[in-house]
Amino acid sequence: MTVVGTTVVPTMVQKYQSPIRVYKHPFELVMEAYERRFPTCHLIPMFVDSEVLEETESEDGSVHNVQRRCKLDVDAPRLLKRIAGVDYVYFSQENTLNKRERTLHIESHNETFSNRVIIHELCSYSAHPENEDWTCFEQSASLDIKSFFGFESTVEKIAMKQYASSIKKGKEIIEFYLNQLEEEGISHVPRWTPSLDAPSSSVTTKPVCATPKLLQLELPVTPAVSIPVSTDANDRELADATQSEATSNDVTNQPDDQMENQTGTPDDKLDADYIKRYLGDLTPLQESCLIRLRQWLQESHKGKTLTLTPASPSSPPFQIPKDEHILRFLRARDFNMEKAREILCQSLTWRKQHQVDYLLETWTSPQVLSDYYTGGWHHHDKEGRPLYILRLGQMDTKGLVRALGEESLLRHVLSINEEGLRRCEENTKVFGRPISCWTCLVDLEGLNMRHLWRPGVKALLRIIEVVEANYPETLGRLLILRAPRVFPVLWTLVSPFIDENTRKKFLIYAGNDYQGPGGLLDYIDKEIIPDFLGGECMCEVPEGGLVPKSLYRTAEELENEDISLWTETIYQSASVFKGAPHEVVLEIIDAASVITWDFDVCKGDVVFHLYHSKRAPQPPRKDPLVGQHSSITTPGGNNVQLIDKSWTLGLDYSMVESPLTCKEGESVQGSHVTRWPGFYILQWRFHTMPGSASTNLPRVDDVLASLQVSSHKCKVMYYTEVIGSEDFRTACFDVQSLGSMTSLESSHSGFSQLSHATSNHSQSSSMISR
């Protein structure tokens, strides 16, 4: 926002980032086609005219710089143009062509209303790094509307709509001029070569008659075309499976080593062909949201290290979410990137805390589920989506809850969802088109009042809540068959907990209506309709039946098991309040021990400290700031304070690590090699924004951040461990023997979704880095 006196004027900022687009033509030929867009282009109606203001060239001819002014007739309401007092808007464009490096950099910005609206665009053309006869194109842009006569929202919509349209036309424009060159018999443009007697690249200026500076509002169109080569390194298996298809489509086959999984590397970028092949048809702005959110994840993982410990559980190595998974969260929030990032952060923290990434490998269904849970996977629907069948009417929900408890049922449902994600990937390879969700067929024959048993409904609602939060946009269609009269009662109970977009995917059939027009045959091939629905395909889904009461367990037994199931996590939660930090004490006997930590900042910003004291901290005390004992139990975790306020830093205890400020959503891993025995205290303190100098206005980021921290409360999820020096050296040796190294350095990331172990190892006693 902009602060003017006492008036706060909101600003509206939009950003765009394109995927990599590839022209299957040499750089020089693409440049020849690009130049034909000027001084005007009939394919872009709003591009009225352009003129060269200044043109310079190096003496050896390798660098050519052109500055243009472009005149645009923006498609805006006449009233808005009259209020603004302009008929046309003007842009400045600077092109720098480096023939030696085979690159073209384009920078554009508006002149019209530049004090009210700031539009900035960067584009680049370059020779493909792996195929010198192809050309890559990439662009980014930002729109910052400070004020516009009260029509800020209207101007934003017009600008974004026309910019998105111009991006789509870029492909047609380049293809048009490339075809025109071909018709003229121009299929090759020689590369630039330096003259033997040419001097080094000093620049000379060719004077051009310049006109007075004018103003403008919309970006000139920079052409782009979606003819990509590379596939996303985030999905090597999919890339390998389509190599033969890529050959038939004249797409480069890359060696296997070039398709190695490089998830999390900053240079890992998406190209347009990969998006279309594996993620589907996205609008330019949707592509931009995906790329920007993906870049945020990559940047927050940059420098991430892996800490391995020999004797006890440690932080498991995770990976950045796959592109399909990121896209699901964006779709769930209508491509609002901030909202999508928030729920994605929460979901990734949840996955880490409960080690959901390893669920398929670690979870074994109890025999009761195998015998009496009436659900299972069954081929696919007509669109290639995996098909899951649930015979809910035949399921003894009360018996399953009494025999297993909520937690086992929840974990089983989570394993079904994880298997669904895996099957979507497989079907994407098999059918050659993006498949990111599945179809669920629910048969309600046999549903009665027994299914409305309150604990069973409670378990169902909890499962729905967890699935909705962590597996958005995975349900493509829900077919509910043979719904009895009692179904409206169940629907009334559960429908409020189901997202509106999900409810739109429900198709409900009463009785035998599913056999008629618009029924099951519209969505599932006749050959795979299950036998219990009148088809000929044998279905291996269990028939269910009543769970024997001999398998029932007491409430106390179920309660104890529920706790053990979901406390398998090695992480603990804690709340951090303003004036009430959370502290953990570790007693060290061996002076050469290694303290390790791994924590996620779930809410707010915190400052992490590590202290040493020869004195043992006193038991938790009553803290007047919080109004209760400092060992506080809250819904979000505990708060424990150990450092007595009478202690003096430097006398009673000392700081052994520099303070580390950690932002919301970040994760930190690190270690400290102890020098002395005694008590080491890990502290997470509420981060207070520093006061600004009297001559400076507060930074926008700081103001917004301060507004986001509600009730002066932060939440962290942490894991700590002490490793003996001998064990640590053994762990380092074991990891090195596997070809990787263990790093002691702390590092930041958005989450503990680790991409790879770094090869950075140090023996110093205190190491913290970002």
UniProtKB/TrEMBL annotation:
GO molecular function, one term: RIG-I binding
Region (Disordered): 234-269
Coiled coil regions, renumbered to chain: none
SMART domains referenced in this protein's UniProt entry, alphabetically: CRAL_TRIO_N, SEC14
Residue ranges of domain GOLD in the record: 567-722
Record InterPro entries: CRAL-TRIO_dom (IPR001251), CRAL-TRIO_dom_sf (IPR036865), CRAL/TRIO_N_dom (IPR011074), CRAL/TRIO_N_dom_sf (IPR036273), GOLD_dom (IPR009038), GOLD_dom_sf (IPR036598), PRELI/MSF1_dom (IPR006797), SEC14/CRAL-TRIO_domain (IPR051064)
Compositionally biased tracts (Polar residues): 241-265
Designated gene of the protein: SEC14L1
Residue ranges of every copy of the PRELI/MSF1 domain listed in the record: 14-186
Gene3D superfamilies associated with the record: CRAL-TRIO lipid binding domain, GOLD domain
Any one Gene Ontology cellular component term annotated for this protein: cytosol
Any one GO BP annotation for this protein: negative regulation of RIG-I signaling pathway
Protein name per Swiss-Prot or TrEMBL: SEC14 like lipid binding 1
Residue span(s) of domain CRAL-TRIO: 365-541
